[in-house]
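$ ./design --mode recover --in tokens.txt
reading tokens...
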């Protein structure tokens, strides 16, 4: 009987399925689902970031992304960007409208990641897996089409998605505005609001420009990054629209 039990245990172990192999698309689909980001598509979300208040309304592809500070209200919708000062609509140059629009969109975009990673302009590529602080991650590179990818379509993102929980704990990106650079964000805290995961990050930059984006996780493990800020969302409120 003893030997039969040992044989049975060995049989179960031998029949245990190997780690599943997922495509980049399947991994992104899972992280959107596991983080509750699928609910963002039909929701009202508000929060404070630094000295400004943000409000987002999304429903069936329509959106209003608002930023308020001092006497200024910035609004980005499917129809474009508008700025109001003391409730009076402002006439803006194309350069200023683009600058303010990108600033509003950027904060809202980062606040609800991984929502947005299945947009038509997004291209996903699976990189070799990575281990950070003993945890294994899928590593997904995201690039954008020029058509539909916005003014920052040349930016490149990398997401580290846990192999067990399918949640994003780290992300990195390269950008070209203001002289360009790279950033690496590290999970600080997380919370769940109405089923949607929100994450605060420590924000790092490489000590050397020679550090490539694809190896920035290794640079983090080797203490070759410098912390430059924290990304913290406060007073988050979420309403899911039926």
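writing sequence...
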């Amino acid at each position: 009987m003893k030997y039969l039990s040992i044989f049975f245990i060995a049989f179960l172990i031998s029949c245990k399925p190997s780690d599943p192999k997922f495509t980049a698309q399947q991994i992104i689909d899972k992280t959107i689902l596991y983080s509750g980001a699928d609910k963002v598509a039909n929701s009202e979300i508000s929060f404070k970031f630094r000295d400004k208040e943000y409000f987002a309304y999304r429903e069936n592809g329509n959106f209003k992304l608002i930023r308020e500070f001092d006497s200024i209200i910035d609004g980005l919708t499917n129809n474009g960007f508008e700025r109001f000062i003391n409730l009076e609509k402002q006439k803006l140059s194309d350069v200023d409208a683009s600058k303010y629009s990108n600033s509003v969109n950027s904060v809202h975009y980062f606040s609800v990641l991984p929502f947005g990673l299945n947009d038509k302009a997004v291209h996903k590529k699976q990189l070799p897996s990575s281990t950070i602080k003993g945890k294994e991650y899928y590593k997904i590179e995201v690039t954008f089409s020029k058509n539909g990818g916005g003014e920052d379509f040349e930016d490149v993102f990398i997401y580290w998605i846990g192999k067990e929980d399918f949640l994003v704990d780290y992300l990195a990106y390269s950008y070209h505005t203001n002289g360009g650079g790279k950033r690496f964000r590290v999970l600080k805290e997380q919370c769940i609001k109405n089923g949607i995961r929100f994450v605060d990050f420590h924000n790092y930059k490489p000590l050397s420009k020679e550090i490539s984006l694809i190896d920035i996780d290794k640079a983090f493990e080797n203490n070759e990054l410098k912390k430059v800020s924290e990304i913290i969302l406060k007073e988050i409120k979420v309403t899911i629209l039926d």
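exit 0
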